Amino acid sequence: MSAHASVRPTAIKKIGASEIHILWSDGHASTYRASYLRRHCRCALCVEELTGRPLLAPEMIPDDLTIVSVELVGQYALHFQWSDGHSTGIYPFAELRALCPCPHCASASS
Ligand SMILES: [Zn+2]
Ligand SMILES: [Zn+2]
Asked: How remote is the CA of residue 44 from the centroid of ligand 1, in Å?
């Protein structure tokens, strides 16, 4: 059971075209680059479902990828549409939180 299983975003804000800022229900704040999130997409086109083998090479994603749209999926996930045309990725809140690139989270998850 993840420690972040019950956290939810309380505010979601795009910063320019290629970053998104999320404020979480436990007070934590995360800033993600679009290219970073896109490279962690877990959809069936990016990760082979049975084996978990990555089908997506990180270098296929341009660093200047932008966020076309972001929307809530029910009460559990965010859905992004990216500027490379990809839009099948769903990011459950707990996974999104686990991807937080801030130094605090990066050291806690290793
Ligand atoms: Zn994907
Ligand atoms: Zn963090």
From this structure: 6
